[in-house]
Design goal:
formyl-coa transferase, domain 3, 6-stranded parallel beta sheet, homodimer, about 45% helix, 12 strands, 3-stranded antiparallel beta sheet
Chain lengths: ~400, ~400
Amino acid sequence: MSDTSKRGPLAGIRVLDCTGVIVGPMSTLLLAEQGADVIKVEPPEGDLMRKLGGKAPADAPGMSPKFMHFNRNKRSIVLDLKSEEGREVIQRLAETSDVFVSNMRPRALKALGLTAEALLALNPRMVHCTIAGFATGGPYDGAPAYDTIIQGLSGVAACLETVLGEPRFAPFVLTDHIVGIIAAQAICAALVARASTGEGQAIEVPMFENAAAFVLSEHLGQRTFDPQGSFGDPRIMTPDARPMPTKDGYICVSANTDPQARGFFTAIGRPELMEDPRFRNVSARLANVAEYFALRAESLRAKTTAEWVELLRRHDVPAMPYHRLETLLEDPQLRGSGVLTQEEGEEHMLGLRHANRFAGSGLPESRRAPRQGAQTAEILAEIGYGAEDRARLMGDAA
Amino acid sequence: MSDTSKRGPLAGIRVLDCTGVIVGPMSTLLLAEQGADVIKVEPPEGDLMRKLGGKAPADAPGMSPKFMHFNRNKRSIVLDLKSEEGREVIQRLAETSDVFVSNMRPRALKALGLTAEALLALNPRMVHCTIAGFATGGPYDGAPAYDTIIQGLSGVAACLETVLGEPRFAPFVLTDHIVGIIAAQAICAALVARASTGEGQAIEVPMFENAAAFVLSEHLGQRTFDPQGSFGDPRIMTPDARPMPTKDGYICVSANTDPQARGFFTAIGRPELMEDPRFRNVSARLANVAEYFALRAESLRAKTTAEWVELLRRHDVPAMPYHRLETLLEDPQLRGSGVLTQEEGEEHMLGLRHANRFAGSGLPESRRAPRQGAQTAEILAEIGYGAEDRARLMGDAA
């Protein structure tokens, strides 16, 4: 559906991407999908996610499913940053890049000569983004950060404990994934600043602090005002808030406002409940929330999900089926949106695409994630390395 | 810790914010924290979240905790967009705004004269962002979207079913919250484009499609390549992946690489396990993952969380305590970062701050969320309404 004759809002922006695994690759994925030229720098052993991201096809080593979904539209160059020549290449790349992103720890950045200080001296227009586990200067500064450690520390797992009765992780690399998006936003904000000041800058995006702010903005609750106040949004924390069983599956229904409640009572054939003192307005239903949930749960078992969705919609009650991943793939809205694609010329290769639409800039054509080092020669040539140097560098890094 | 003598990377950007509840306010929160002048347009009854976001203090009606945490640094103007005069005001605001954001449905936008077509005709440099439930043109186009409905439809709840055995929602307004961040990123990308083309544009950010891409990028798994392939990242979907009990609480430990495993075995006083064929390298531990988890769970019960964190860190094994929200508030890293603040001159008013650091632009001083309509007069004066007109408009909208 996107206009692929256009090049995307970030066309002309070059990103030097020294990230790996999820948080960093997620940030540069958004930039790449929006038209930036993302140069993914991989060590000779490749991004860890090539191996850890599931099983790669036999004829495409290193192309694990998770690697593919977080690295499309990027170019890959393999460099040994521990060698002097590797460092020279990356400095040349830094001179012509608008953005540098890494999720290395401060010590590693320093050892490789890739600190903000060093790179901004080479290229004062650069936006230098460090995705850190923890904000510098604090007691955890430089400690390793993994998604589960951040989920446990930042209160994500605690919120699951509140509803489940035991600490659990959300079944996503949730904080990696979210903080990657946050980093892409921060990078673009710094590019907006550069457009008016002409100057680049160093930015720092800490995982723990962003994750804690994410959790607390939702669930600081009454503790905000009162040292004895309760945490948590009770509308979310109630164990009753869940997909509800129907005759053949589950459904998600929202019937909170008066018109929605009236529509719901009519749809289940009990319009008189709108006059019931327990249910007649928002505050009555809140005061009797357990009964209201029980009533809904009981009624919904009577028909199939498809029957309910149609009936409830006719009464202007928001309702959608509950999808397992299997049925999600068949969802007609998702299929039609172009976000999920089955690539041409392939038996079965499911791909994902950028979900947002830019009417003016369009989006660039979507390209598969690169094989490891697929563009090493091409990129070296672009920054002026002749055939002989390229051969030597590629021999070194292989 | 942020340099408040500076104004933030988005200083000079004006945002006309016609959003409510969470997804839209989250997008403009990021812009406001980064220095944009966000004008929050509220209907006479106020943003719904003022009432639904928890209990407001007796002396500050409408200032619910959730409203406060998603609306700081914004200015509030109350306008009746259904009146002709209200529409005139918003058109004048549109003429001088760089960004327009709404999460209204297409029909409502059209009725109020706030479509991209209408506003870009007034102001061709504007970035017009619609946060939609579903991408336009699909079968669900225009259907109402609530976070739980999107969680159920997009596979978020399905991933919880995989690990819990029954469909559950993640205990956050997860898709609202994430898509709000995604919208802020898309808006900034369009502002980057404008800096080079001089032109604004319409952008559309659909909740369902973004949520589905979020889920599938992590869990499409082997189904990517094989129509019979399994969904899900097994490292995340295993029920063993959870915070582990200690003598006095829980701990999160990452011991996946060989050096981490060696450190862990040494810390628990069983260095010989590194030679055990079940555990001696990454693939052995993966093949015996249940035994490896059981061993870890059993060992960790022997000491307190604090003892383990210290001991494991000494052996370079990533480990952090599991925080409930209560203890998260006391975390020394969070306290020191400035992300969580206790406001001056208040008995107990906990606030949140932007977690990212911009070395060049700094961040603007943080301001509390506005009372409803607090800046109506000020904003009307800025766009040229005299005292008499202001009084009339404010009487109309009150």
